[in-house]
Amino acid sequence: MDFSYYLQTLDHFLIYLAVSLVLFIMGTYIFKWITPYSERDQIRSGNSAVALKLLGKMAGLVVVLQSAVLHAINLVDLVIWAFIAIIVQIVLHIVIEYVFTRNTNLAKEVENGNVAVGLFLGGVSVLVGLIVAANISF
Description:
Elements: H1 4-33, H2 39-44, H3 48-71, H4 75-100, H5 106-111, H6 115-136
Helix pairs in contact: 1-3, 1-4, 3-4, 3-6, 4-6
């Protein structure tokens, strides 16, 4: 087995890994920034609903980043698709939370510990991530 190929491509792996991790952190921060309550404080106090919702957002983001890495032709392409995916996920989250459930404040329900709502919103984030990831395959 010739390890020289792996050594020659190690720099690409490390660069894409670093960029992907930065995009993941940025995306997670953006999701946390648009949340009307402190997810960190809620999770520290044992709010499982908030933890499930945040985990779903993060998983949806990872699915999209995975697809972007697999299909990107270069780092710029990766970054562009990652930002498009983050924006789409935010917009769809807002549409679901505020349009389809006008009579229920889902953010307040999650903040109050409604695990069913947290799981639903986290699951929707994963599903949206899967749809967006599939479309990145152009």
